[in-house]
């Protein structure tokens, strides 16, 4: 049986899903084609994703392709209860998702989707993949492959492969250019700043924003904070990314030096213990801290809770902690994924590309089950090109074409200086 907060919310969710669908032309065109040729007929898909309007439209495409599908939430705070109800009622996927649920209920939801005995896994953070391997190995023989849409999840799956623990092939959707160049940079950049402003209503112009990590998500957050008038400091462990941040005009400092200057600290690393109480004790009074990474490990929230002398709720998604030194730290969204928990998640326009890439990766796995060994395989370039070309067509953008003479030059070596 599905796990929903309130099925009566379905009408409101349906309106939001349709609004997003109008801004997802690539996925809409794919859905239309798949409704006719059913490339996923006979497959059972278990998915663990943020339950948002954009995810609903990915479900629409996969179900239109002929798959039986069950969906659970990849983060309790990102779940939209009205959207979950509409997916269950209108799209045909069985849904296990309740906003704000506790950890026990979260894993009940994960177990619920696995009861369909999936042949394909669609993951966001690798919780579903890890659960299958650790607790439901009886399901592994039927699973022909999986996809993973986040940086954090891809790292987990590569670690599984390195340990020879991965039992089926995985396509890392996050590694596709049509995903991370747009979703991570523009989507995360926008929704993180959106979540920050909704939770605090603070003025970014003149503020000092410390961005931990300068991968694609960090680049996006830093660019948007800077565009709103903030001074941006980047912290990094990777010398190449640190150099890139410097040449992009950012200050680059270690966290221990950046913390005393911060108005806002946002983590985007995918690692743990990036901001600790030691750092917080050095921050100015009223510093805002938030996380834009997938898991709530980047800020040591447990350490903050046990160290603080008091805490109080001051705004939605904003809790004030007073440290023994007497200064206050404002933690947003419990240290969870800020743009998903306190804002509207990624815009439909970028998720159009991400989920079209995800859907085509699922089809590729279904069609190539006998050719792929258990490993993390690259997304085929043909999938990236198909998504990008379709998106350009939706924007009415046409490209130049190489002449025969140009093509010949690019494939020869004889012509030189």
Assembly status: single chain
Low-pLDDT ranges? none
Q: Tell me the β content.
A: 15-25%
Q: Structural class, please?
A: alpha/beta
Strand order across the largest sheet: 10-9-8-11-12-15-14-13
CATH class of the largest domain: Alpha Beta
Under CATH, the homologous superfamily of the largest domain reads Adenosylhomocysteinase-like
Keywords:
417 residues; alpha/beta; Rossmann fold; 2 domains; 17 helices; 45% helix
Structural features, described:
The protein is built from 17 helices and 15 strands. With 417 residues, it is of the alpha/beta class. It has two domains: 3-179 and 346-394, Adenosylhomocysteinase-like (Rossmann fold, 3-Layer(aba) Sandwich); 185-341, 3-Layer(aba) Sandwich (Rossmann fold), CATH 3.40.50.720. An eight-stranded mixed β-sheet has the order 10-9-8-11-12-15-14-13. A seven-stranded parallel β-sheet has the order 1-4-3-2-5-6-7, with helices on both faces. β8, α9 and β9 form a beta-alpha-beta unit. α1 (10-21) crosses α3 (53-64), α8 (177-200) crosses α9 and α15 runs antiparallel to α16. The longest helix is centred in the middle third of the chain and has 24 residues, at 177-200. The chain is globular, with a radius of gyration of 22 Å.
């Amino acid at each position: 049986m599905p796990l929903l907060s309130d099925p009566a919310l379905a009408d409101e969710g349906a309106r939001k899903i349709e609004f997003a669908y109008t801004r997802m032309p690539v996925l809409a065109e794919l859905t239309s084609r798949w409704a006719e040729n059913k490339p996923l007929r006979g497959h059972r898909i278990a998915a663990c994703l943020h339950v948002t309007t954009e995810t609903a439209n990915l479900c629409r495409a996969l179900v239109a392709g002929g798959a039986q599908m069950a969906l659970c939430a990849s983060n309790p705070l990102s779940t939209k209860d009205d959207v979950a109800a509409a997916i269950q009622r209108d799209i045909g996927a069985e849904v296990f998702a309740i906003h704000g649920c506790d950890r026990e209920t979260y894993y009940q939801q994960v177990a619920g989707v696995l009861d369909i005995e999936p042949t394909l896994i669609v993951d966001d953070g690798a919780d579903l993949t890890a659960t299958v391997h650790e607790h439901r190995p009886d399901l592994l023989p039927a699973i022909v492959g999986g996809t993973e849409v986040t940086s954090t999840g891809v790292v987990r799956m590569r670690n599984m492969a390195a340990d020879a623990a991965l039992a089926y092939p995985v396509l890392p959707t996050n590694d596709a250019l049509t995903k991370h160049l747009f979703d991570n940079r523009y989507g995360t950049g926008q929704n993180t700043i959106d979540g920050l402003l909704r939770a605090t209503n603070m003025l970014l112009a003149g503020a000092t924003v410390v961005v931990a990590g300068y991968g694609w998500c960090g680049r996006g957050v830093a660019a948007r904070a800077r565009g709103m008038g903030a001074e941006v400091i980047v912290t990094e462990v990777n010398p190449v990314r640190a150099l890139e941040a410097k040449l992009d005009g950012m200050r680059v400092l270690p966290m221990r030096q950046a913390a005393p200057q911060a108005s806002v600290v946002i983590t985007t690393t995918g690692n743990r213990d990036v901001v600790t109480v030691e750092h917080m004790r050095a921050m100015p009074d009223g510093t805002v801290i938030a996380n834009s990474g997938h898991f709530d490990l980047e800020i040591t929230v447990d350490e903050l809770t046990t160290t603080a002398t008091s805490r109080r709720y001051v705004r939605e998604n904003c809790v004030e902690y007073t440290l023994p030194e007497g200064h206050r730290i404002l933690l947003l969204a419990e240290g969870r994924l800020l743009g998903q928990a306190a804002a509207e998640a990624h815009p439909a326009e970028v998720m159009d590309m991400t989920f079209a890439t995800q859907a085509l990766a699922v089809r590729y796995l279904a069609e190539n089950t006998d050719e792929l060994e258990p490993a993390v395989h690259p997304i085929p370039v043909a999938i990236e090109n198909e998504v990008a070309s379709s998106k350009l067509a939706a924007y009415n953008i046409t490209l130049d074409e190489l002449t025969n003479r140009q093509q010949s030059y690019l494939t020869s070596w004889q012509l030189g200086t």
